[in-house]
Write the structure tokens for this entry.
Amino acid sequence: MPKYRQRWIEQPPATGHFPAAATTLPCQSCGGTTLESFYELRDVPAHSCLLLPTRKEALAFPRGDIELVFCHDCGFIGNARFDIGLNQYSAAYEETQAFSPRFLKFLDEICRDQIQKFGLAPGVTALEIGCGKGEFLTRLCELSGCNGIGIDPGYRPERNQSSAADRMTFIRDLYGPRYAHLQAEYVSCRHTLEHIAPVQEFMRLVRETIGNRHHVNVFFELPDMERVLETGVFWDIYYEHCTYFTRGSLARLFRAEGFDVTRLYKAYDDQYLMIEAKPAEGLTEARLPQEDDLATTAALVRKFTEEVDRRLAELAEAAQRWRRSGRKVAIWGSGSKCVSLMSSLDFGDTLRAIVDINPHKHGKFLAGSGWEILGPDALTEVRPDAVIIMNSIYTEEIRHELATRGLEPELLPL
Ligand SMILES: [Zn+2]
């Protein structure tokens, strides 16, 4: 999905080279120094949701390296080779999933749950840090009657036609200390933390913004790394995501930065990690059973490359099978997962099209591979024998879209 990362944190001076071993870097989440490097990818596109107007620009897009390190003290995982200078978030950033009925249903469920739980109502203000195109905040305001403040450099006012528009303020900027004065009873941050390298400083700023207003409720949503580690889904690791959390490591960061974690759960077929918290006076003790995952995460980290190799072999085998039998293949979903998959696998001339239901992406080009993104209607001409679905949660929706176009290809949901 997402969006943003702040530049207000000073970066270390550029030395022109990366450290040979990342194990000497302090953990961005807890400051610990027991870091273990466990997964590397070279030369991957630095952005995966930034749309390029020409193939030439897409092919020439800046690339960076990924070296995932695991902190044995807190369980945090980050890209030790992340270079903030390679990222740029702007209105050209196209992360929204809001063209999918399945996604909109999920968004509605989350909104209704949060409204009910936290008493969002007229007169109450909800703040969203990294609001993207504003879908969540808008729906929250529409359903509850509350006021909203959204911050994101990628916000596009012309796309928001909400009836709640007069109760919402959008700031097209990155969140930082200059917005510490914004007061809200509810603070949300969805699919944003994974784009932020200095996560400890970020959480500290959020806590400072809330100050002594102890009634404020906080809700964060981000990808769950436990599932990625368990299942070896390497296409969920990409340059834009410089930080990765499990339930335990996220809760440890929240507690260390002055929050009490009240609820910790997974959603959206267990792909997303949700945390609810309240500001606390000082440190709080871990008290939810799911926070206790340090040893299991360490074990998953140890066998991750094995899982990735297994996944890669499976996909390479499918690609080879299609090539040998002269099959035509299409990929459905042109987001970050697709960019990541294309960096690791070569489908050769068996791949005929990459399609997406977001019309704002059509006619634009994928960073790295330079493929043009087409609308689903293009498949009526391509008539693919197989379609790779980049997120299995959309399988039924996509099967239906294909059927309405008279297509019944083999589906490979990832
Ligand atoms: Zn740590």
User: Anything to note?
Assistant: The first helix runs from residue 55 to 59. The CA atoms of residues 312 and 344 lie 8 Å apart.
